[in-house]
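Schema walk-through. Below, the input block comes first and the output block second. Nothing else is stored per chain. Lengths vary across the set, and this one has 138 residues.
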Amino acid sequence: MKAKLITLLAILVLTSIDSFGGWYKIYNYAGAIDHYPVTLSFQVRDGYFGEAAKKTFNAIGIYKYDKFNNPIRLEGRFNQKTNEIELYELGGNGKVSAIFQLRFSNQQVIGTWNSGKNKRIVKLKLDNKLSDLSDEAF
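--- output ---
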């Protein structure tokens, strides 16, 4: 009797829990900013990441120059209708130090990196992508 009660209770608890699958998508790219090899990864959400001042932001990530292997933080906006992303490079003080403006096409990203002083061409190829839904094609 006690085992049946525990089983019934477990079933009730498990069926009353909301599922939150599909809440993240991560894209990993390799390529170059001009002739400097880089790796870039970013995560996209349908909403924003919780900071009230950044309600229009739906992408976060990092990139690194492969030679130095020092991650640089990114935040920004991904427009799924136009397949464009604008990522803000954040310096150690949390202020924007450069802006990526990128456009997706199938397996690559092409665009620019602009620090205000220098503007460079960005060409990246999709290395892999990850979702919390193993069967999701995105």
